[in-house]
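pasting input
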Amino acid sequence: MESMLHITTLHYLVLGAALFLLGVIGVLTRRNVVIVLMSIELILNAVNLNLVAFSRLWGGLHGQVFAIFVITDAAAEAAVGLGILIAFFRNKETVNIDEVNLLKW
Amino acid sequence: MLIGGILVITRKNPVHSALALIVTLLAQASIYLMLYAPFVAGVQIILYAGGIMVLFLFVIMLVSIDRSMKERQFNSQWVVGIVAATALGGLFIAVYTKGKDIFPEHALPMVENDNTQQIATMLYGQYMFAFEIASLLLLVAIIGAVVMAKKRI
């Protein structure tokens, strides 16, 4: 019973996997570009959770340093993605991802 | 935290999604504190819940959401998307049920008094090159975002 109540690394990994799946579902099914970008943030956060959980498991700090790098990447990605979104909205007056089909043959 | 994540992908109004995402990020910061990572928790709150979410809310304010809220919210391939995500979930379950015995039951003891200092030493020592690359990436992102969002250059 005591080991049942203990939070192990596996619990964090399952939580991270669930969050990752929510992000994937959001990316694949939503039509609003803003919400798709937010789902990408969910995916990156799931990866961060795994990194920090493993860093705790092995007692080192490499996972936390990598989590900081991932947060940096997320900031860069959000800035560029929202810039693209603003340019797209100015041209087409919509945020619907189904209408981003200029490269479609 | 999972409730927040579910709300992010189901709400119709993007502002509600953003608020749910803030709840999710704060819950995750508390989980970082549970994992003895106070510096990452602080960075998460300041940079994610503070910086990136403000950026998202600004963009939601700039693009008009009245029309998109009246439209269909899920795209035409949502069945395929759900099936693909379910397959991925089945893969995760298979991996975790097969591999759950390889982890040690109890984590190693961790010093928690100089976490930030150790992270700084590693960032400027062992990960010096990656740190410089990250700064270059941020510079490129700044220039890219300005070029994209500007009307004419």
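fyi Chain A touches chain B through 72 residues (CB under 8 Å).
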